[in-house]
Amino acid sequence: MVDKPFIQHIDQNHIWHPFTQAATASQPLAIKRAEGAYYYDYEDKPYLDLIASWWVNIHGHGHPQLVKALYDQAKALDHILFAGFTHLPAAQLTKTLLDIAGAPFSRVFFSDNGSTAIEVALKMAYQYWQNLGQKRMRFLGLQHAYHGDTWGAMMVGQTSNFFHAYQPFPLMVDTLPVPEYFHDCKDIEIKEAQALDQLETLLKTHGHDYAAFIVEPLMLGAGGMKHYRTTFLAQVIACVRAYGILVIFDEIMTGFGRLGTYFAFQQLHQQYQPDIICCSKGLTGGLIPLAVTLTHETLFQAFWHNEFSKTFIHGHSYTANPIACHLAVTSLTLLAAGIPNFAPLYKRLFMPLYEENLISKLRIIGNIVAFDINLPDNNYGTHYSQTLRHRFLESGLILRPLGNTIYLMPPYVITEEQLTSAATTIKKILCNI
Ligand SMILES: *Cc1c(COP(=O)(O)O)cnc(C)c1O
Questions:
Q1: Strand, helix or coil at 213?
Q2: pLDDT band for position 144 (50/70/90)?
Q3: Regarding beta strands 105-111 and 291-296, do their DSSP bridges make them parallel or antiparallel, or are they unpaired?
């Protein structure tokens, strides 16, 4: 096979990979094709995709209906700028998303990826206050939050440990500790009360300076799949709302069934719903990028004015790309057949590992299972997490530990058999690390 050496040569000499230290990373694996829950390399060796290719894939790879949707839409209308023009796929997707999200959401702003959906949300919140004649220049968030890599997203995620090189940041962001919740967690009430105390202190000083509170609802993704309780989030929202602070939910990871419901916010009572939701990742089923930022009429109306200065000046070349929108509509139609529930299976497969003390901090939320293992060094990208990743890969599993946290977030087409066999392999590897 001549393609493989060609890829390797070009890759090694000319490609700059994301989140990768080229000096120490091993050669990336060249993948030739994908089908269902599997990837295949150039030797036709299968790899089970247990992380949905960075959390984007929900229906499996090469889904015939999605592939057809891509082709059909490309033939009918491939792209059109979205200022001064509109089209059916965008209208259909807007209607579908608003039907799922329900009231009060009434407006959809399109962009290309998770980070841009966050930039849109942050800028909307910031300018909302400007347009109302108020200066609110701070943001509030959670520690270890991750909201993307563009400048604004990075600033609200500055405690994620990824961005030391860019400090200090010009945007004022305060963060609350996350009271982590997991199986057999003992002191949760104390941790929650401490976090709420800190919140109260921050709000007393800066309550009217915060434009928005931004949060990954119920589960912090890249920060280590840290889960916290719905009741805690509801309490925080009630506190920040008392100061008029807007609430932004970053549902980029949690959206489209990952936590068992379409959106995580649907697990909260109506009164704790956010003002803005950001979605991307699973939106198109994982074939091509697309993102949306949803909000309600009150926020939209603050931009409704004869003066151009009140306009939301934001847009991207590929805003609301028709192919991406049509794919998203098709993906959501497939999802309407039912969001799976892997939780009982995860429990059966991973509780024994917990009972044998092989893993700790087991958390199973909807279709995500995560647990920690005891490694000498727990940071992202360190020697041990890389070693583990390679062990998994050798055994035909695609997993990407976050430091000492291992998690599974597979495409929904994965079978019980495939998950069971993966759990056996994981156990074997953990026993021999
Ligand atoms: C992945 C992710 C982002 C960033 O999305 P990109 O498409 O990678 O820019 C933001 N927030 C959360 C919670 C994410 O998981």
A1: strand
A2: very high
A3: antiparallel
Mutate-to-test residue for ligand 1 from 147, 163, 220, highest number of ligand atoms within 8 A of CB: 147
Distance 251 CA to ligand 1 centre (A): 9
Which token pair is 412? 């929904």
CB distance 216 to ligand 1 below 6 Å: yes
Sheet of strand 397-398, all strands in order from the earlier edge strand to the far edge: 31-35, 38-41, 46-49, 397-398
Quote the CA–CA distance of 106 and 276 in Å, as a whole number: 11
CA distances from 104 to 98, 107, 306 (A): 9, 9, 25
Average pLDDT, the chain: 95
Residue with tokens 């759990």: 423
- Atom 7, ligand 1: residue with shortest CA distance: 114
Task: Give the amino acid at 317.
Answer: S
Please state the rounded mean pLDDT for residues 307-318. 95
Residue that has been written with the tokens 């068992």 in this structure: 260
pLDDT for residue 271 is more than 90 = yes
- Contact by Cβ (8 Å): 274, 265: yes
Q: Is the CB of 221 under 6 A from ligand 1?
A: yes
Cβ neighbours around 115 below 10 Å, total: 22
Who contacts 307 (Cβ-Cβ below 8 Å, separation ≥6)?
A: none
Q: Tell me, what amino acid is at 211? A: A
**Residue 264 near residue 217 (C-beta atoms within 8 A):** yes
Spacing, Cα 9 to ligand 1 middle (Å): 30
Cross-sheet strand order for the sheet of 210-215: 105-111, 291-296, 276-279, 246-250, 210-215, 138-142, 172-176
Asked whether the beta carbons of 144 and 160 are under 8 A apart, the reply is: yes
Ligand 1 pocket check for 248: Cβ under 6 Å: no
Instruction: Report the atom number in ligand 1 closest to the C-alpha of 220.
Output: 13
How far away, in angstroms, is 415 Cα from ligand 1 center? Answer: 26
What is the C-alpha separation between 401 and 409, in angstroms, rounded?
Answer: 12
CA end-to-end span of the chain: 34
Task: Render pLDDT for 225-248 as a digit per residue (tens, 0 to 9).
Answer: 999 999 999 999 999 999 999 999
Helices (H), 77-144: 88-101, 114-131
Report the nearest-CA residue for atom 11 of ligand 1. 147
Q: How big is the CA angle at 332 (ends 330 and 337), to the nearest 5 degrees?
A: 105
Closest CA to 294 of 108, 151, 96, 76: 108
Mean pLDDT of 263-273: 97
Per-residue pLDDT tens over the stretch 370-388: 999 976 555 555 677 788 9
